[in-house]
Specification:
The chain is mainly β. It has one helix at 56-59; strands at residues 2-6, 20-26, 30-34, 44-47, 51-54, 67-71, 85-89, 99-101. A 5-stranded antiparallel beta sheet has the order 4-3-2-1-5, with no helix packed on it. Strands 6-7-8 form a 3-stranded antiparallel beta sheet, with no helix packed on it.
Length: 113
């Protein structure tokens, strides 16, 4: 994923000079620009000369997700069974967790997170 600063709006009313955008390559001479780090959320395709690439390693540190092993004790819904194990991440700002299914220890002797 690339990030770039708009240096020339090229007559576009959507781009703002000096603003940072997430850029996704589109052919050899263009980028799909987005305000979000997701390719499907782009709002247009612009020539590469409208942007100056920014080094992400200096500007924003990579976020590492902490993962935890969780065992269901009191199921919140009928989708979870007691004693099933899952891998969960730290809660987001809205209080929800990302939950990943972990194969039961009955079927695999080597469990690693």
């Amino acid at each position: 994923m690339l990030q770039g600063k708009c240096v020339d709006t090229g007559g576009s009313t959507i781009l703002t000079k000096g603003e940072l955008y997430y850029l996704f390559p589109h052919g050899g001479h263009a980028y799909c620009a987005s305000r979000f780090p997701r390719p499907g959320s782009h709002f247009g395709t612009y020539q590469k000369n409208h942007f100056e690439l920014v080094d992400l390693s200096i500007d924003t540190p990579m976020q590492v997700l902490n993962k935890y092993l969780a065992r269901v004790v009191k199921p919140p819904s009928h989708f979870y069974r007691i004693d099933e194990e899952y891998i969960i991440t730290e809660p987001r700002a809205d209080g929800y967790y990302s939950v990943f299914f972990l194969a039961s220890s009955r079927w695999s002797s080597n469990r690693r997170i």
